[in-house]
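Memo subject: From amino acid sequence to discrete backbone structure tokens
Keywords: amino acid chain, backbone geometry, structure tokens, three-dimensional fold.
Body of memo: The sequence and its backbone structure tokens, given next.
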Amino acid sequence: MPTVHANGIDIAYEDEGAGPPILFVMGLAGQLVDWPDEFIAMFQEAGYRTIRFDNRDIGLSSETDWTPPSRRQTMLTALTGRASKSVGYTLTDMANDAAGLLDELGIEAAHVIGISMGGMISQELAISHPDRVLSLCSIMSNTGDRRRGGIAPSLLPAVARRKEATIETAVDDNIEVFRQIAGPHWSENEHRQRSELSVSRSFRPEGAARQTAAIMASRDRTKLLESVTVPTLVVHGMLDRLVRFSGGVATAKAVPNARLLAFPDMAHDLPRPRWPEMRDAIIANINRAAEQVPAG
């Protein structure tokens, strides 16, 4: 798999298709292979160039070496909202990684789609590098406001009881996590296949802990999102318990003229029956960007 050196790290990526570029930004602990191939193919078939990549500390991209907070500290942060200041990076740094990848690929600007933590990174990219983002789609994410889009209290006991995964138990552990947070269209068989591919490709539990700490140490983007002028689509499931629906509502309110697409049968996953609607809404948002470009 190709890599580039950008923003001081090596970034593994996959670049397919031809046409206007779309940058897909994955969520917490997710690798580029966690984007369903068929979902990505829908955009290639519609005439777009698709770029997926591994965020730092995950997959085949560079691994950092700072010690993440313990699970107990993470739980306390989730309950109190007081994050540790001793983190090696924040979501702003991860957005700079994405901008660096675009630099190395010779892409001046791209349409950006982020999921969960990837939505947060995409928002930061639109805030810090507005000239690099043609349109924005934030899926099952939030603005960083601790009062909106947080984890449902009913999920916290399950998080607290989780044992540390090993490479032997990682796939089953991931299945159990998604059994708690996914919606009615989630397929255990499909998810197991992707999880097996991910674990065989890379297993970095400390990387996931560092990314979690980065999320919790990052700024509230609510006011900053008022500066985002590109067409923005917010997609969120009304059943989401990991990033509650209020996070999507807050994001759509924060970005001027953003549109909210809410699915009553979606939780913290990408429900296959909704893929065509998502694709059509994302392409419609991309087309809004094209309409903003002056002719000639």
User: Anything to note?
Assistant: The chain has a mean pLDDT of 93. The radius of gyration is 18 Å. The chain has ten helices and eight strands.
